[in-house]
Design brief:
This protein is an alpha/beta fold. It contains 13 helices and 9 strands.
């Protein structure tokens, strides 16, 4: 389904930019695709907004992400954010994102060898080289052996930032504590999972605002037995990327957190729930790196593992997106009659999908989500650039919308 031209043209006449939120799925190194897409979105936004004759402008009002998608979203948001009174920019965000991703790749002989061994171990498990139940890479991350292995990495020449996610984030965002929270124009949501009480958690930049902040969202925490909204922190982003096979749970304010893949991939509800209508995004662009479909029923251990991970990353997302479609229908159904109307409080939101080519999606397996080889990462990043450039050339009238555009 394509967005109705009449509504888009009405916005064009007023020359108001479309409010866009970009939601980034997690998927390990496959998020390299998102690095390319986000870079092109930022370039395109700046080009359109710098052209006084451009009728199809858009502004980035929010970002959300989980796991590797959270890392990408954080870097873009940090580059856009004002710090110590110095304004950010799309150009700064592009540099921040790509520099971070370059540092995330294996560099130097020891890191290259370590990455090759890690990737080979995952491939061997997928291909059942040692049997389905072989305990490859199954060291307890809080155990003595894992601690000894980690301690030996730096003396061997492995950068601490390569294996220490909190240190990597600290180095990448040195002025995080100096962000001018109340001047933020772009909101950031990061998904994680509190594992003791089973609480779906979102770390939200709106929760960091003071004074007359919270202009996007009700300042309450919106805490239920099963979900909560906490202030954004680098520890929260680290929590979002904490796979229990590799890292101990991230501990924040008495809670223990794992990867957000288990709850929201990525957060969508909070982009809309409790948000004033004037700040609600007109469109949500979902960067989907976990394919909705597969070629056939999984048979091998590799196919089963890969499909389990894809389903885990997609089904919770689809439920949140379906709720948006339901609210859109309610606005249509109850748009007439005696006031108040549903449309007085809510507006219709168009959801769109940007995804890899079918050929690339079919060629990737779960194991390649752990392949930090820079050539592999660059291939996915370059594809993200190509796909996004083509998609943006056709936006807003000639691109589809969810759910039709989620599948191949």
């Amino acid at each position: 389904m394509v967005r109705k031209p009449s509504k888009a043209r009405a916005r064009d006449v007023l020359n108001e930019p479309t409010k866009v939120a970009v939601a980034c799925q997690g998927g390990g190194i496959h998020a390299s695709f998102e690095v390319g897409v986000l870079s092109e979105i930022l370039k395109n936004m700046q080009t359109r907004n710098d052209d006084p004759n451009e009728q199809h402008r858009f502004e980035l009002v929010a970002l959300s992400g989980t796991s590797a998608g959270a890392l990408c979203s954080l870097m873009v948001w940090y580059g856009l954010a004002s710090k110590n009174g110095q304004a950010g920019s799309p150009r700064a965000a592009i540099k921040q994102l790509n520099d971070f991703w370059d540092r995330f790749a294996a560099r130097g002989g020891v890191e290259v060898i370590l990455n090759a061994l890690t990737y080979a171990a995952f491939k061997a498990r997928e291909q059942e080289v040692f049997g389905v139940n072989a305990p490859i890479l199954s060291l307890n991350p809080s155990g003595v052996i894992a601690g000894a292995v980690t301690a030996a990495l730096s003396p061997l020449g492995v950068r601490r930032r390569y294996y220490d996610l909190p240190k990597l984030l600290e180095k990448a965002c040195p002025q995080f504590d100096n962000i001018d929270w109340d001047t933020l124009e772009t909101r950031l949501l990061v998904g994680a999972t509190e594992i003791i009480n089973g609480v779906e958690t979102v770390f939200d930049s709106d929760r960091n605002m003071v004074g007359d902040g919270h202009k996007h969202h009700d300042p309450s925490t919106v805490t239920h037995q099963w979900r909560q909204r906490l202030p954004l922190s680098l520890a929260g982003v680290a929590a979002s990327g904490t796979l229990p096979e590799f890292r101990e749970a991230e501990r924040i304010e008495g809670g223990s957190y794992w990867d957000g893949l288990y709850s929201q991939n990525p957060p969508i509800r909070e982009l809309l729930s409790g948000v004033d209508k004037q700040y609600t995004p007109d469109e949500i662009w979902v960067l989907r790196i976990n394919p909705q479909q597969c070629l056939h029923e999984p048979q091998s251990n590799a196919e089963i593992q890969d499909r389990k991970n894809e389903l885990m990353g997609n089904l919770s997302l689809n439920k949140e997106l379906d709720t948006i479609l339901l609210v859109n229908h309610f606005i249509d159904w109850f748009s007439t009659g005696s006031p108040p109307h549903v449309g007085d409080w809510y507006k219709k939101v168009t959801v769109r999908t940007i995804k890899m080519t079918k050929e690339t999606a079919e060629s990737l397996l779960y194991s390649s989500k752990f392949n930090r080889n820079h050539r592999f990462m660059d291939q996915l990043r370059n594809e993200g650039c190509r796909v996004a450039r083509d998609w943006l050339r056709q936006w807003p009238y000639n691109v589809g919308s969810y759910p039709d555009d989620a599948a191949y």
